[in-house]
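It is worth pausing here to work through a concrete case rather than discussing structure prediction in the abstract. The textbook approach is simple: state the sequence, then state the predicted structure, then interpret. We follow exactly that order.
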Amino acid sequence: MKYSLEKRFITGTVIPVSALKTEDSIGIGEFLDLKLFADWCKSVGLDLIQLLPVNDTGFQSSPYSALSAFALHPVYISIKKMPEAKKYKSDLEKISKKWEGKDRVHFNSVLKDKLKLLKKIYKDNYEKIEKSRSISKWEKDNPWIKSYAIFSFLKEKNKNLEWMDWEEFKDPSKDDIENLYIKNRKKTLFYSWVQYYLEKQLQEATLYMDSLGINLKGDLPILMNIDSADVWESRDIFNVKNRAGAPPDMFSEEGQNWGFPTYSWDSMEEDNFFWWKARLKQAAKFYHAYRIDHVLGFFRIWTIPPQYISGSMGYYSPNDFLHIDDLKRIGIDGPRLAWMSKPHIPGYELRDKLGFESNEATKLLLDQINTEDLYLFKDEVKSVHDIYAVEELSDEAKSELVNFYRNVTLIKVDEYNYATTWFYYNSRAYISMNDHEKYEFGQLQSSKSGHSMWLWENQGLKLLKFMKESEDMLVCAEDLGTIPNCVPKVLEELGILGLHVTRWSKKYNEYGEPFMKPSEYNYLSVSTPAVHDSSTVRQWWPEMSSNDEISNALNLDNKLSPIPDTDQVKKLYEALLKTSAKIAMFQFQDLLAINESLRSKNAETERINVPGTTNDVNWSYRLSFNLEDLIKMDEFNNELKEMIKKRG
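Step two, the predicted structure:
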């Protein structure tokens, strides 16, 4: 869809499809619910609706762990509106009644109920579906459906195991996929049938929004789940051994390992980025705009090699790595290079940390260096996974051995290049250097920074340029965190919008790191007080480091009080709506905070996700009322409308 909002300033709201609730939806929001939500947005003057990702994630409720970059999630289908479902009224009423009145989304259970009914309808109507010319034509127009359908069929056949654990077809050829698709036609057509109607329903909602003058903004996660149809089929464009993540920071001493493979950009460039362009073309069927998740990853990605798990044991890629010739020039080669890149364990440390288990650990995993009281891991120990796999040792002993394994200064990237570890200055080899050696090593590292920055800028510009030019959608970037200077430079050059989250938008290069005034935000940006991975506005209130400081940044005559009552929240939003950013976005549940009867009594129930945690609460937020009722809430709607109107 072509981005069509011509206003200088845009105001919008962010909501997960799953959170929507209407009289027709079953236990979870559905694509067609967006039509009613668009009616409400139109009535209060909102221009833009932003969704979280809606791709198929299987039974994972997190929308950022997709099984396919193309397929939509079956949980969002409105079965009631499918023509084959007319004779299944009693089944639909039974499921609807089961989930009626639930205050949270029970993702897996709702999905199971929906899939069970869909399979029943499909089985009873197979002959008619099999003869459908519309579905047949849709399949030809969407070649990705073959690998997705076969992948889904095999995954179910293998009891939902990851493809790496299947007995057959772990690495299929194109002929394998084609033959499996034809041979198992009755099974695979089910997935085509469901995806055909999912697309029709989401397109129907988007076209309806378009008729109202409202645009829809999607969310494209940069990375793919290792257990996805895309990685399974197109192994050549992914680095399946490496994992993407983030280095240590103030929130995580170990860094993060997201578990997703990195891309092989060189391989992708060989076919002119066909996969990414196809992905963008698919998104353009539904969206007028899209958010690039973790845009920094297009410039550089934190890469964790297969021998490690911890995010602290990674490096940025691409990079001007330490070449063996560079290291040789400062005296690091041969045994010295091995000393810095292979973990050496003094016997006294081994015995101190492992106690009576040290002998067993030595026998199973270590080799003594000549007659020295010094040990190396055996050649067959290729990774920390091999250490964790030893059954004879306690968990405590294995943990200590993993710490030893990570005690290196350099990580081998390939035959000729090395990267320094994040905490290299704490490593045994680095500590053993004299001051002159440390100085030369530091100088070598510093000499690489300029070229590394050039590599990041060059890659980011190349990748984002083709993405911007591929479709007519407005491109918005999630550029949070510590970002190199080349990122805002490239975004501005390409006209891609950045992101300002009020609580994190500060002048970090000034004394005291004061908040930026919303009126100082770059016009080519999106402004918001909260995101799905942060606390809500009401939760953030007591977290504010200084009400005086934020009040000054917002140019408020009277500072915000410590209690986020409705008047105080209105005051905050009125100030935020004066932002100079092109787009001002608010989470839907944050908008409810201006009305006492609509906002939750417990603010914690309105948070979407807490990063780094796994539980049944994350991603389960759901409206406490139907959209049909929301449209009739005149007091709230009029108040919100007046606030938005002032933005112009």
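Step three, interpretation. The CA atoms of residues 389 and 451 lie 40 Å apart. The mean pLDDT is 95.
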